[in-house]
Structure formats: structure tokens, C-alpha cells
Amino acid sequence: MILLCWISFALCAAGIFLSLRPFENKGIKEKIEQAAIGQGETLSYEVALAQGSKKPDKVRGILVGLRQGLAKYGKDTYVAYMIPASLILGSLGAAVPVFLNIPVFSPSFALLGVLIPYWILEAVWARIRAEGDKELERSMQLISVSYKRTGSLELAVRENIDSFKSYIRLAYLSFLLEVDSVDPDIEMAIWHLRDRFDDPIFSEWCRALVECTKDRTFVETLDAIVLRKGEARSVNLRVRSVLKAARNEFLMMALMIFGNVGLLYLLNKDWFEALTRTFFGQAVLSVSLAFVCIGWTLVRKWTTPVSFHERDHLFGEGKT
User: Fold this and answer.
1) How confident is the model at residue 174 (pLDDT cuts 50, 70, 90)?
2) With contact defined as beta carbons under 8 Å apart, do 282 and 102 qualify?
3) I need a surface site. Which of 55, 138, 205, 212 has the fewest CB within 10 A?
4) CA 191 centroid distance within chain
5) What are the residue ranges spanned by the domains of the chain?
6) Mean pLDDT across the stretch 214-238?
7) CA distance 20 to 28
8) How far does Cα 32 stand from its chain's mean position?
9) Is the dihedral of CA 290, 293, 297, 302 positive or negative?
10) Which pLDDT belongs to residue 75?
């Protein structure tokens, strides 16, 4: 037990050390990500996956997906903070039960500590993605209105860019920089702007802008595309609310499991003592906590909404 405490203390100290902000400029956080996620797949790894001789690493795939998604909004460093946070909380979760003389809870508490930062990061990513989708729709609407009035896409972007937020503003700033300093070709700048967002309706809107540079009659299609973007976002919000209800039901059942422990104290104190004081009873509670943690992680995975997009009727097929 003493050895476990020393190991937990060492891991916790390492996590605190890696979380220190003064080391950020030296690239330590990037090295943490590379150690946990990797820089990229080798050719032999890709061949092994294609041949079926090697299975993809699911944990690594989840972390890569989170990092790539957050990188679109300039928040990819959150993954580097999550890794030492999991190390710290997992170490504390393993050590605290030992100090409290209930070492049987060490595995489940360590699992809980490791998963908490991942749950938080996943929730942050879902919020950022929802806000980014809303801001993208707003930018499409404002620029469409200004473009119809001015007839110049560059002027329409300049009029509204100060009202945009975070990554959306950065994308349009890159568009203006490309037009002003790199290449005055508006059409090519629109294609580069389209590539910054993985959104089929936004891609359709960009294709409509390209057509507008050739034929002004296409400008009337911009409002219809923006309207479809709003409808698709409304559908996604309704789907998220339904899936959120499923998550709430799981949390309610988990609360009932551990709430029954307190109820057992009122009904039969002998059973309560057997559950909380004996090794077998504590093992049952520890295993229950571990199953709840794993179950909550799986429920969050299974209830992650798939983005809905209408099909592109004007300029080719979109994604669904």
C-alpha cells in the first residue's frame, strides 16, 4: 500500500509539472500530445490496418478526433491539458482510498479520475461545435444581405467581419488577406474559404457565391441556402434534446443505485454495515462505480448526435 501511495504521488507530481504554463513555450504540451496520440500513421501501420492484421487503437482514435475537431477552432491545446489532468486525478483517485483505509476503491476511483477530464473536454467540444455552427449560419446570413446590397463580396465581408467571433472571424480575415495581398482572384479565395469548414451547406453557399461572380441572377439563391442552414441546425438541436433525455435517464438510474445505499441505512443498519464495512460489500460498491463510469462513457458515445444536412439540390449532392 505504501508503494501504491508513492507511485500515485509521483504520477500526480508529474501531472502537475506537465500542467505548468511556463513550459508551454518550450513545446512540452506538444510532446505530450505526440506521446499520447502520435504524429501520424506510418505506411506499415496503414497497410496492416488494410490487411486486417492490426486493429485501430480506439482510445487514440478518440483523442485524434477531439484534437482535430478542436483544432478547427484554435482550441487543440485543450487535449494537452486533458492528459496531465487525467494523470493527476487518476493518481489521486488511487491514493486517497488507501489513506482512508478503503484500498478496494482505488481502481474505481482511479478510473473515475482518469475519465472526468475526458468527459469535460467532450462537453466543451460539443458546446464549441454548437456555437461555431450557429456563428457560421449568422455569418452566412449577414454576408448574403450585404452582398445583395453592395454587389461586392469583399466589401460585404469587410462590413461584417468585426461582428464575427473566434475562428469564424479568423477564416474571413484569411479570405480578405488572400484577396488583398496574395491573389486577387475572388473565385479561388472562395474555394479556400470553403475548405476551412466541413459543412456541406456552407460548401453549397460558397459554390453559389462563385456562380454569383459569373451571373448576378444567382444572388437570389443565397437566402434559400441560408434558410436551409437554419432548418438543418434546428433539426440537429431537436435531435440533441432527445439524446440528452436518454443521458439524463442513465444518470437518474446511476443516482438510484448509490442512493439506495443511504436508503439501506434507514431500512436495515446491519445490511448497511455489511455493505460499507466488509471487504465484500466494499468490493461490490467499487465494481458498481466502475461499471457506472464505463457505462456513462459508452452512453455518451452512443448518444452523440450525427449532424443532419439536407441534400444539395442546386449545385450537386450534399452529405446526410
Assistant:
1) confident
2) yes
3) 55
4) 26
5) 1-101, 131-234
6) 84
7) 10
8) 18
9) positive
10) 72
